[in-house]
Structure formats: structure tokens, C-alpha cells
Transposase Tc1-like domain-containing protein
Amino acid sequence: MQKQRAMCHFKAIIAERVIRGCGKDVKKGQIIAQHQGKKSCMEIAEVTSIGFCTVQFIIKSWKDVMNQHIREKKCGGKTILNNRDGRSLKRLIKSNRQKSTLELKNSFDKGSKTISTRAIRRELKGMGLKSCSAAKEVSSYCD
């Protein structure tokens, strides 16, 4: 009787170590594989000798991570400018900072892509340039 209790206690310690550290990823992989094999949480808990709530938590966190990856791929619009276009836009801006966004749009449209003034403003903000305005001239009051 005492051996059985010691064995149960030993299994509980092993299961706890698996969840907290040592073979954690292996057990998680088994739980997820069994979940994908259409086993219930109760069956998985019995087979892996891990608590029912822990099994549910592992499955839920795995589902959340998977859903997040799916959402990342689908959310947001397509990028208007690629890296090369962004660099050429930056060159246009640096060449003459007094140009308005409309003038920048017209000069940029001469190339391969067409872009709206709103998109240009958005790109400027992303580059860290607030607007296209002349660089401040230092005027000396003391002569």
C-alpha cells in the first residue's frame, strides 16, 4: 500500500516537472497531437497523467497562438511602396524639402508607380519626416 502511494506521489512529481520545465515541450507536443487526433481533454489528461485544467490551458494557449498567426497574415492592407520605392521617395524629399506633397506626388508618378498624397504623407511619417517644409535657416540678429 505504501509503495503504491509512493509511486503515485512519484508520478505526480514527474508530471509536475514535465509541466514546469524538464520535458515540457515534449508533453505539450503530445497533448496537441492528441487534441488534433480528436481526443477529449479528459482522455488526454488520463493518458498523459497531467491535470485536466492544465491540458485545457495548453490547448487553449496553442489555439490562441495559431489564431494570432492566421490573423497576422490576413490583417491590414498591402504595402503601397516597397523598400526601393521608399528610398527613391526619400531621395526626392531630400533633394528639395520645399516641395509640397502634391508636387512630390507628381514627380513620383513619373516613375513606375502612382501614389496618392495621403500615402505620401503616411510614408513621410513612417520615415520620421513630419512634412515637406524648408529646413530652418539660421538668422543672426547680432551683426
